[in-house]
Amino acid sequence: MRNRANRRGEAWAKCPIEGRFIRVFPIVRMSQARVTLVVVTPREGVRIELELKMIFNFIFGRKHHRHTNARAALADLEVGQRAIVRELELDHPVAEHLMNLGFVPGLEVSVERSGPGGDPRVYRVEGTEIAMRRELSRHIQVSLVGAPAFGD
Amino acid sequence: MTCHSVARPDDQAVATAYRTVAVVGPPNSGKTTLYNRLTGLRQKVGNFPGVTVEHHIGYVRDQMGEEVALIDLPGIYSLTPKSEDERVAVEVLQGKMPAMPRPDAVIVVLNSNNLNSHLVLAARVIALGLPTLVLLNMADELHRQNGAVDVLTLARELGTPVALVSATTGFGLEAVTNFLASSSPAPEPLELPVIGNTRSVREWAVRVGENANYRRPATPLWTKRLDNVFLHRTLGPIIFLAVVIAVFQMIFVAGKPLQDVIQGFLDSTGAWIGQTLPDGLLRSMLINGVWKGVGSVVVFLPQILLLFLVIGILEDSGYLARAAVIADRTMSRVGLNGKSFIPLLSAYACAVPAIMATRTIESKRDRIATILIAPFMTCSARLPVYTMVIAAFLPGRPLLGPFLNTRAAAMLGLYVLGFLMAVVTARVLKSTILRSKDAPFILEMPPYRWPQASSLALRLVDRGKAFLYRAGTVIMVVSLLLWAATNFPLHNGQPPAIQDSVVASVGRAIEPVIRPLGFDWKIGVGLVTSLAAREVIIATLGTINGIDASVHEFDLQTALRHELSLPGAVALLVFFAFAMQCMSTLAVVRRETNSWKWPAAQFAYMTVVAYFCAFAAYRITEHFIG
To which H or E segment does residue B479 belong? Predict the structure, then answer.
């Protein structure tokens, strides 16, 4: 599914059924866990819900493909993505502990899976799987190796 | 990177065979399994002086038949003394620990599946200059998962003997007995990194691994498959709940018959002692004092061992780490993290081992919060009290078909009550005196493994002994005191009637305080004696009623119905749900927090909460039944 948005706040979406572009009115809706974009087409009455995360991924995921050195926090990575650890912006004992477990700058880390509710998540580094909360992985700077294609 | 050679150790350590050898290794390296495999039952637990870290000393024979003492040090990742565990390890290895000789040699146990991380610890231990043996454990998994390492090259790089071993299968363990007999010289590695800098040590480790052609094994496929299920978004929490329920179901279904067997045995031996001894003060002391005291502790052994067995299986299989991940989200709501879940689960058997298990929580504030709420969990010592009171006052009627009857529902309600109070207390603590930025929750996920029966059995023996010793000694003393209090002052050389005994005066003294809860002096005596341990109240009420002629022919439940009104019974249940009536727990809290401040505060808080909640329960029940 492709999306385009113009400056007036309307958006054009390619209709999945007919394959043509239709005008839609997007509404951003925030719920507990996710921010969703609800688009309703006035004529057809088709309702499409998109997670902003998916759109974000779609837009920025491709950028990551082009610039493989793009920086991000480990918490921003999606499940399945891989990255190189760059910097631990954490207090010494915590950083030291993480380094002993394998979070050493220069090593590859991947997001293995997400716990129920998306937090904590399990990361893999050097053959070890380590679970940590986002409040921690937010402070681990990484550079991306590759991003999964949209819809992965 | 700067390198430096290692200083030679003093000659004496090289010349003589080893007497004491320290075993170190990171957590999840299989160190304990290996240690148990080497020493078997020939080990004892001790505490290092001044700290709460436990150690094991076991004995093993080397190739020449000489006895060598193996010291099992706590699982550590590095030798920077930041945690108590690491400080203890460093002090022992440097010979600075009082009452502990400096080890003559060190055995470093590493997980061969994660060599690059674990070689960091090896580098730091080798740098100490003691003769060292490096064991690459879990060789069976390494081979099965297509990993490889050149042991000879690694030995040359490290300057120490290196062996691939498997603690679970016993593969390669002769290397240990060889090493113990050989008195090999101190290590002279090709190069060592700057020890203080984790990053440079790490780079060194990767290079050494590369030189030794280390190929990391693939993650077992079934670990990934199982995690797909156990950590699944919706299935994960469902399985988690099912496991917790199954654990309890098993403990009560399997534990009850075992408990009955032990109770029957204790009763018949008690009766036998009664027949063989002549009537008198001595017989009364042996049966009502000593034997009942022993019985009240031993009776809980099946349930506690079953719980440790189940937790041990969950832990060794690797599921417990996943359970902590699942529980973390919920635990974070009350300000704790997933690691508190394991101690709190153990607290359902007994708060004593639960408080000992809080050592895995790094954050001191989180640890104290967990210690303070653990006794609110319904431990097995509360069960006989609950069972007796519920059975006496509540007729067993089916509530939800065959699954739940009224008595089970009441029991469940008390479990929920304790849990809720724990949650409330945790929230209050974490938002007031123990406020801290959320402690980092970092947990290694071990691959799934089959639990080993021998290692489980050893742990059960260890825990069982600890429980009997810690709880048994206190309860024995208290039941003897109680016996004395009920049998003195002597009246014409005969024990007095219960109304005239010391214990009755204590009960009467506190009666005005507990009268608003609907308790009479007999319950008061029970409350006093249950300060030793909760279940003692049953023995006390038995003793009081057993020698009280007016209710001699009734059994305990009938006697209870005479003493308590229904509101009083509800108040008693609520009181027991919240009150800190366990000297063993207080003693352990004192030891684990290293101060009297926390156990005193805990005791005061729980007693106040119990008193006022019991009062409220009494009034509310009274109001409803008119």
Answer: helix B453-487
Q: Is the pLDDT of residue B611 over 90?
A: yes
Cα-trace Rg, chain A: 19
Tell whether omega for the bond before B49 is within 30 degrees of 0, i.e. cis. no
Retrieve residue B152's tokens: 């000879």
Predicted pLDDT of residue B3? 39
- Cα B371 → chain centroid: 12
> CA of A33, closest CA in chain B: separation in Å?
13
Structure tokens at B375: 């006794």
Structure tokens at B531: 């300060």
Residues 6+ apart with CB under 8 A from B418: B376, B377, B378, B577, B578
Give the DSSP H or E segment for B56: strand B54-61
Q: Mark yes or no for CB contact A100/B198 under 8 Å.
A: yes
Residue B79 near residue B196, CB atoms below 8 Å: no
CA proximity to B73, closest of B97, B54, B60, B58: B54
Taking a C-beta distance cutoff of 8 angstroms, is the pair B233, A116 a contact? yes
CB burial string B199-226: b at 16+ within 10 A, e below: eebbbbbbbbbeebebebbebbeebeeb
* Partner residue opposite A96 with nearest CB, options B116, B198, B443: B198
Sole residue written with tokens 């148990």: B36
Contact B104, B19 (CB under 8 A): yes
Mutation for B interface: A128, A136, A138, most B CBs within 10 A: A128
- Residue A64 C-alpha, separation from nearest chain B C-alpha, in angstroms: 27
ipTM above 0.90, yes or no: no
> Helices H, strands E: what count in chain A?
3, 11
* Ramachandran category for residue B262: left, alpha or beta (phi over 0 → left; psi -120 to 50 → alpha): alpha
Token pair belonging to A74: 């480990």
Confirm whether pTM is higher than 0.80: no
Q: What confidence tier does B215 reach under pLDDT thresholds 50, 70, 90?
A: confident
Helices in A12-72 by DSSP H: which ranges? 52-66
Q: Kindly give the pairing relationship between strand A35-40 and strand A108-114.
A: unpaired
Sheet containing A71-73: order of strands: A71-73, A140-146, A82-88, A108-114, A121-125, A128-132, B442-445
B588 touches B582 (CB < 8 A): no
Query: Do residue B325 and residue A100 have CB atoms under 8 angstroms apart?
Result: no
What would the pLDDT profile of B365-380 be if each residue is shown by its tens digit? 888 889 999 999 988 7
Written as six digits, the tokens of B555 are: 């059994």
State both tokens at A47: 């309702």
On chain B, the residues whose CB falls within 8 A of the CB of A106 are: 203
B216/A127 CB distance under 8 A = yes
Which of B419, B421, B390 has its CA nearest to residue B406? B390
| Strand-pair category, A128-132 with B442-445 | antiparallel
**DSSP string covering B161-203:** -EEE-BTTTTBTTHHHHHHHHH-PPPP--S----TT-HHHHHH
DSSP bridge partners of B622: none
Mutate one of A32, A125, A129 to test the B interface: name it (highest B CB count within 10 A): A129
Token duo for residue A146: 């590759």
- Determine whether the interchain pair B202/A117 forms a contact, defined as Cβ–Cβ distance below 8 Å: no
